[in-house]
């Protein structure tokens, strides 16, 4: 995809985010558009950078390493958004600026050890399985409050909010229910911990406008920006 096309896609997506904010009386500045660059070539990221974007979502440790090296001249920020195996924690601990898929205490402990050894503290979002689908990772809504208490005890992680993937369906009511489940959890956590938990990463290419209407502060857009995903990582 050309640089011009990527810039146009970013502008169109931003306009849709802003319109969704207007429908519910939100400030568009509250919502980040995070381009999800996994499987897309480095030239695509350079095009998005030229359009003003500085943070990108990746979900494969090896691909993150390659892009962080190949694009080091741009000073990009990297958000890891996919399932991470504990034995791959090193890459995220060293290179990521944010981790949006904290889905188990075991993984959190592995990350924490790596981060403390590096003297780093990593912003993180707790993944919620709001749809109940077995193919999706994360804590169930009922597990989240206790999990957050355990996760906040780890010095290397700065737990700032929640992330979810909505149900894989065209039923907008079902999708909206997933997002409102997470916003309700956010309110509960704020009450229990005296504030915080400001980040809600909800919404992808097929449902991001609904997510914004439900309170998302970060939408993760891949195909909407870069086109169809490559069959394998470059």
Automatic annotation (TrEMBL):
Residues 9-229 form the Alanine racemase N-terminal domain. GO terms for molecular function: pyridoxal phosphate binding. Keywords: Pyridoxal phosphate. Transmembrane segments: none annotated. It holds the Pfam family Ala_racemase_N. It comes from the Bacteria. The modification N6-(pyridoxal phosphate)lysine is found at residue 38. Its cofactor is pyridoxal 5'-phosphate. Belongs to the pyridoxal phosphate-binding protein YggS/PROSC family. Pyridoxal 5'-phosphate (PLP)-binding protein, which is involved in PLP homeostasis. This is Pyridoxal phosphate homeostasis protein.
